[in-house]
Amino acid sequence: MPQPDLTLKAPLQQRWANLPAAWRRALACLAIAWACNVALFATDWREMFLQWWDSSTYNHVLLIPFILAWLISLRWREVVKLEPQAWWPGLVFFGGAAFLWLLGTFAGLSLATQLGVVLMAQASAVVLLGPRVCAGLLFPIAYMLFLVPAGDELIPFLQTITAHMTMALLDASQVPAHIEGVFITTPGGYFEVAEACSGVKFLIAMIAYGALVANVCFASWSRRIAFMGLSIAMPILANGVRAWGTIFIAEHRGIEFAAGFDHIFYGWIFFALVMALVMVMAWRFFDRAIDDRMIDAEAIQANRLLSALSQYRIGPPRALAALAALALIFSGWSAWAGRLEAPMPARIDFAPIPGWQQIDFTPQVPWKPLHSGASHVLLGRFRDASGHVVDISFALYAAQADGREAGGFGQGAIPLDSGWAWERSAAPLAGGHAERIQAAGPVHRLAESYYRSGPLITGSNTRLKLANIVDRLLLRTRSTAALILSAEDGVPGQPPAEASLRAAIAAIGPVEAWMDRTAAGR
């Protein structure tokens, strides 16, 4: 008797009709679960899609759904031999993913919320397909993590690495240069290793590409790990060469020519050559034949651990209902907590600083810290009788959430694309987070940031987020205040920035008390 055609070459309707009833039921339930995931957490999926579409850093993610379909097709002939089953321990993973999403909403951390919804999609597959099928589809399910647009957090680190590699190459090529943070000065000009020059775009894409090649082309784990190491190292090294090449060309042909060459050659051709080089270096070590099976259904079926885990069954309708209940509980919790906001005064003003007067705000280079979503924002310049000059930025938030995070990425003293960039960390003067920043000129600033929420006073963004999370979990309303004390350095006729900040801190007294007086309003 001829066997039904279960391969992906058959027409869709025929493939569905030929599937065993257990598979049709499991896939229908999974489709419902994923549709509900997208509907219930539509905001997070929409934000992810906009990042895939609008940000060149994440344009490659648009290919991930097609790659996932291809990866499943490579395993389908074997996977379909396994029997799917609803598995109740998977609900623990789903609950954990939903709790991560909840914490992300409380902290205003989009990375956590987006990771949470993708993990919930993965956990839904574990719940509705069971341990054996998920073992067969382990890599495609895991590869779904690349749907999460993550990596911008690496930009400061990559900027620093690129700047130091560039300096080493300039020294080797006998080009005199001086570095301050991510700013490099040569006889030919003044250069910044900006966010766009960090190489994060190529690194993220290469990690996703490297993981795919490591799984498809290698069978040995040692070779897979070595290839992943190459896929991470090469784009970082290549970006250092790119930055050096741009400066080296500028020394000989001018900055305008170097900028155009960088956009055309390095932007489109250079990294394609690097990717090709990675493949050429790894080609001879590929150890998976093109006709090898990606998985062995018989081995999965005979695995004792998977057999033991498969005993914990649950009916598909009950599993689907449990998934829906957990999703609704956590989304409802988030909605309830999200409506809680601390009362805000109608107006706030800087609390008096003994011996200091507010003067016109006239910085050498425009500087305006970013406090997105704050209910009140103050920015002013103060001077004392000794000539110390300090700029103060203060923001008061009714709540912390996505889009209004006191310590979020790009918030505070160094807004993205503001002309200011991080130079180096500095020793805190009063328990805050201190850093030196720089703008073209060069113009230097010393800035120290503080956060205040309830009894907490800290310079740590992590401690602030943890406090905000606890408040939301307990449905407790507390305002959050952010304070930045800053001073320009090297201004003729003015004391050094550190001396000015020390004088201001001494006059202010306990920082937390002054922040409370400013936040009290009138």
TrEMBL record:
Top-level taxon of the source organism: Bacteria
Keywords, in A-Z order: Cell membrane, Hydrolase, Membrane, Protease, Transmembrane, Transmembrane helix
Organism lineage: Bacteria, Pseudomonadati, Pseudomonadota, Alphaproteobacteria, Sphingomonadales
Membrane topology label: Multi-pass membrane protein
Record's keyword annotation contains Hydrolase: yes
Keyword Nucleotide-binding applies: no
Native source organism of the sequence: Novosphingobium subterraneum
Residue spans crossing the bilayer: 22-45, 57-74, 86-111, 123-146, 200-218, 225-245, 265-286, 319-338
Gene Ontology molecular-function annotations: peptidase activity
Designated name of the protein: ABC transporter
